[in-house]
Amino acid sequence: xxxxxxxxxxxxxxxxxxxxxxxxxxxxxxxxxxxxxxxxxxxxxxxxxxxxxxxxxxxxxxxxxxxxxxxxxxxxxxxxxxxxxxxxxxxxxxxxxxxxxxxxxxxxxxxxxxxxxxxxxxxxxxxxxxxxxxxxxxxxxxxxxxxxxxxxxxxxxxxxxxxxxxxxxxxxxxxxxxxxxxxxxxxxxxxxxxxxxxxxxxxxxxxxxxxxxxxxxxxxxxxxxxxxxxxxxxxxxxxxxxxxxxxxxxxxxxxxxxxxxxxxxxxxxxxxxxxxxxxxxxxxxxxxxxxxxxxxxxxxxxxxxxxxxxxxxxxxxxxxxxxxxxxxxxxxxxxxxxxxxx
Length: 342
Ligand code: SAM
Ligand code: DTB
Ligand code: SF4
Hints:
By secondary structure, the chain is α/β, with parallel strands linked by helices. The chain has helices at 12-20, 23-37, 81-93, 113-125, 139-147, 161-167, 173-185, 202-213, 234-241, 249-262, 279-287, 307-317, 338-341, and strands at 42-52, 98-103, 129-133, 152-154, 189-191, 194-196, 221-226, 267-270, 292-295, 320-321.
């Protein structure tokens, strides 16, 4: 297995066939791909901060921050730059490599951009990688962020193209792709993934990984979130009423493994949902090729596993924090046709 096996021409049938493999075979193949491209005992540590919480006009059915939900999350204004830099310094002291700043916006307003730019520049000056997730961007906004030195932009496709309209009605899957294009064109690394466990079918999970793996270039980071069910959100309430729709751990691990095989060079992040995941399930995710996590005791609004729990888990599993730049960050490897890659 070499970098030349990076493909963007996966078919849905091929992705579905990976999902259908016996679990042990799937994990073995994913671990092989992982080892060929990454150090299997290294995990990247990223820290999240919600720089503008709640009151979001979008109606994403999973999200506690949507103004359409009844989650009890209070809307706040955009944080002051100094407060954000303070939190980044704390994250750096705790060993984090990347600082990810999230805002509950449909899109940033031009009047917010000066503060956003100052946050990017300030966090970069500390020697951390920067990531922002602010909703849809215009090409000009993406270029401004790139000029400020933003390393990554997170913008998730969240689920399969077919399922998207059942989860979110206030924007389209194609609008998501447009922003991803603007981010790429500006030269910013792409962080793009989604959520598993929203009551979707296996076919949706196939469609989700397929959509990511057939982007013109694979995202450098692929966050795989397990739905954190929040009371008062459409999906949180749906899952509380129909517990059978809940995904099982094995199927979650399968999704991580298929993402690893389909996108060999990408960092696959075991993202939201670790707090309620057993250590054994997380260990299987690392075996299946996940090599990045969010650290700290909070995600954006939801609880996270916490640094001491993670330190204990890393100790038990013999994992270590990745130092500095990850080795293979740009997913610009040659794309070869399926036949040549076989
Ligand atoms: N507003 C911006 C946007 O939607 O692009 C950025 C912030 S948004 C909270 C970032 C991502 O967090 C979503 O795309 C979704 O994948 C994930 N997310 C939000 N709520 C979640 C939940 N309850 N469980 C799991 N993932 C969630
Ligand atoms: C992503 O894919 N997961 C992060 C990050 N990108 C911004 C967010 C997870 C949010 C989990 C729910 C919450 O904290 O409200
Ligand atoms: Fe708003 Fe992002 Fe939450 Fe959707 S996921 S409601 S866009 S904050």
